[in-house]
Specification:
The chain is mainly α. The protein is built from two helices and no strands.
């Protein structure tokens, strides 16, 4: 994984890349701006929808 330096590669890009390719997301933070959650909301909602769909099939 490339180094995230917020110049050539941003944390936003790194998180979107991780969220689009991950099967599961666990987040533990002490502090995170609400604007950061807003940037990631649609990717997190997709994970939640995928979880609900897989649970309904089980």
């Amino acid at each position: 994984m490339p180094i995230i330096d917020n110049r050539s590669r941003t944390m936003h890009e790194g998180l979107i890349n991780a969220l689009t390719s991950a099967d599961r997301v666990d987040i533990e933070v002490a502090f995170f701006y609400f604007s950061g959650w807003q940037l990631l909301a649609k990717y997190l909602l997709r994970k939640n929808q995928n979880l609900e769909e897989s649970q309904s099939r089980a």
